[in-house]
């Protein structure tokens, strides 16, 4: 499972970071998913491995502009590029109205592809395709905000050759049939079911990607079985104390505590206040402060998202930073 | 008069160019004007000399997304920066509805400044402040589209010292009074009016900035008295012949012919199709083709806009490319 951050700044773009967007794909698959779409997401995409033609589904966490103002431009560009594949946007109330009205005002009366919206602000929301099963989880913010839990679809395990040999299934077409999920009948009349000769399926990879939220603990249940938590950490505790709780954002500490309680392996922090610089001068805040704070409360790995930063969550549960975005 | 291009691509952003936006200011004035606001304009601004706090008025040429989708983000950022000064957006129908609905969907219920819209799709439109008088001029495009004619407000001429001496006005406070526009009474009882002792005012600088348009000749009247025409040249003639007229855009030739007929001094071409590259490889289209085509039909200067490209129209009527944007 591969994540490429396209924007990692809270509220407004900075010279170092754009507003929020995240591309997610199952390893080398061409199809990919977009979580949030701040203004300028299509610009960031041009310098990434992903193309609009491979975009399968968009998930929006909440209606704030820095998470959705890039949608009309991205959709218009896909239209001008001649996209034909349908596009689904899963989002809470308000996003569809924004997008449809924007396109109408801009005289985009007809798209060359079907644009469908699905409401995620319902308890039973589940999105499923051949790569992922995605559920939504309500958070705490100034507007309804949601996390998305991406669970890799389990594929049947590979054939267990020892078991096949023990049962006397001859190598050849019968193995192929079993691999494709069909039972086979041996010469002696025994029927072998695929389930008898398969290894256990590989563990499904699960990542929980949060929207803006001041109570990361709300994700405790969603984080069960997840290896990776991606969550906003807009402030460190000291800044939070100065700014106050009115913006309803998280600190690195609070995210780390929730991750520790839920026993996930990896946390990627994102959505940083513009005051945190990559290379701070004396007296300035640096993003490393966020990492240090989180590491104090969490025993897993802590990574700091940056624009075009790309991470791979392997089948072995390891999280690796990739060079190529 | 200073123009900084913030986006010069037609329809969609490219790696070299963003979608349309242009910053205009009267020389070194802090206050500036924005003409069009494609997605990502606020990002381009961060690397320009201009700040959102100095932005006085926005003019939108037409409702297509590549000319207005940057408005909600720019307004939201101005709001988060605590802007207090009122902001006026002069635009044809559709733009206000787009902006107000976008802000409402994004839960921006209250701005810390007054946001006012003025309709430019009316014959009598005139915007006036202490720097510019701006009129709108209808063009020909797939949706109602307008050019804006920016005429510098004439300030009274400087005092004519020879004339003051000839009339026997003693140097000192009386000169100051005349300079500030008040009549003075001399010791011998004669009353001197400011108009008697002023040099003729410097010629007003006028720039006409077009929106998308397939009939540049429509600007003939608006171009009278103008030194500078900024106009889209999406295609060269050969490409236009292949693409056909359906997009209702101009070619470099057609803009040049209109400029020649109206006898303006300078043309800056912009809004180039993505196929025209700055450094084309063999077989690719290059932006220089647009300049060559225009120069063939126009005797004035032809410049090709590029992102962050900055030009100064001097009081002497000369157009100079500046290094600093």
Automatic annotation (TrEMBL), chains A, B:
<feature type="binding site">
    <location>
        <position position="66"/>
    </location>
    <ligand>
        <name>Zn(2+) 2</name>
    </ligand>
</feature>
<comment type="function">
    <text>Zinc phosphodiesterase, which displays some tRNA 3'-processing endonuclease activity. Probably involved in tRNA maturation, by removing a 3'-trailer from precursor tRNA.</text>
</comment>
<feature type="binding site">
    <location>
        <position position="212"/>
    </location>
    <ligand>
        <name>Zn(2+) 1</name>
    </ligand>
</feature>
<keyword id="KW-0255">Endonuclease</keyword>
<keyword id="KW-0862">Zinc</keyword>
<keyword id="KW-0540">Nuclease</keyword>
<feature type="binding site">
    <location>
        <position position="62"/>
    </location>
    <ligand>
        <name>Zn(2+) 1</name>
    </ligand>
</feature>
<feature type="binding site">
    <location>
        <position position="271"/>
    </location>
    <ligand>
        <name>Zn(2+) 2</name>
    </ligand>
</feature>
<protein>
    <recommendedName>
        <fullName>Ribonuclease Z</fullName>
        <ecNumber>3.1.26.11</ecNumber>
    </recommendedName>
</protein>
<feature type="binding site">
    <location>
        <position position="141"/>
    </location>
    <ligand>
        <name>Zn(2+) 1</name>
    </ligand>
</feature>
<dbReference type="InterPro" id="IPR036866">
    <property type="entry name" value="RibonucZ/Hydroxyglut_hydro"/>
</dbReference>
<comment type="subunit">
    <text>Homodimer.</text>
</comment>
<dbReference type="InterPro" id="IPR013471">
    <property type="entry name" value="RNase_Z/BN"/>
</dbReference>
<keyword id="KW-0479">Metal-binding</keyword>
<feature type="binding site">
    <location>
        <position position="67"/>
    </location>
    <ligand>
        <name>Zn(2+) 2</name>
    </ligand>
</feature>
<keyword id="KW-0819">tRNA processing</keyword>
<feature type="binding site">
    <location>
        <position position="212"/>
    </location>
    <ligand>
        <name>Zn(2+) 2</name>
    </ligand>
</feature>
<dbReference type="GO" id="GO:0042781">
    <property type="term" value="F:3'-tRNA processing endoribonuclease activity"/>
</dbReference>
<dbReference type="Pfam" id="PF23023">
    <property type="entry name" value="Anti-Pycsar_Apyc1"/>
</dbReference>
<feature type="binding site">
    <location>
        <position position="64"/>
    </location>
    <ligand>
        <name>Zn(2+) 1</name>
    </ligand>
</feature>
<keyword id="KW-0378">Hydrolase</keyword>
<feature type="active site" description="Proton acceptor">
    <location>
        <position position="66"/>
    </location>
</feature>
<comment type="similarity">
    <text>Belongs to the RNase Z family.</text>
</comment>
């Amino acid at each position: 499972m591969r994540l490429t951050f396209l924007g990692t700044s809270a509220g407004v773009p900075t010279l170092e970071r754009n507003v929020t967007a995240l591309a997610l794909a199952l390893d080398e698959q061409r199809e990919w998913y977009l979580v949030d779409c701040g203004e300028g997401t299509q610009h960031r995409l041009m310098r990434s491995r992903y193309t609009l033609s491979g975009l399968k589904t968009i998930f929006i966490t909440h209606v704030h502009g820095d998470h959705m103002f890039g949608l009309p431009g991205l959709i218009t560009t896909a239209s001008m590029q001649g996209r034909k594949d349908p596009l689904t946007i899963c989002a809470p109330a308000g996003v569809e109205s924004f997008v449809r009205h924007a396109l109408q005002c801009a005289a985009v009366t007809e798209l060359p592809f079907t644009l469908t919206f699905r409401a995620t602000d319902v308890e039973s929301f589940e999105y499923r395709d051949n790569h992922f099963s995605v559920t939504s989880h309500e958070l705490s913010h100034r507007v309804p905000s949601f996390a998305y839990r991406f669970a890799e679809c389990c594929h049947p395990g590979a054939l267990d050759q020892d078991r096949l040999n023990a049962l006397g299934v001859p190598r050849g077409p019968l193995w192929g049939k079993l691999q494709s999920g069909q039972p086979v009948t041996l010469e002696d009349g025994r029927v072998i079911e695929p389930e008898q000769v398969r290894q256990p399926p590989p563990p499904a990879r699960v990542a929980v990607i949060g929207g803006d939220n001041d109570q990361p603990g709300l994700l405790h249940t969603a984080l069960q079985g997840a290896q990776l938590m991606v969550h906003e950490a807009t402030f460190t505790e000291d800044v939070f104390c100065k700014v106050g709780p009115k913006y309803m954002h998280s600190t690195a500490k609070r995210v780390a505590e929730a991750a520790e309680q839920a026993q996930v392996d990896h946390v990627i922090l994102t959505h940083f206040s513009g005051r945190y610089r990559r290379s701070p001068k004396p007296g300035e805040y640096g993003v490393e402060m966020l990492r240090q704070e989180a590491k104090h409360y969490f025993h897993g790995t802590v990574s700091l998202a940056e624009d075009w930063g790309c991470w791979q969550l392997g089948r072995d549960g390891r999280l690796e930073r990739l060079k190529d975005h």
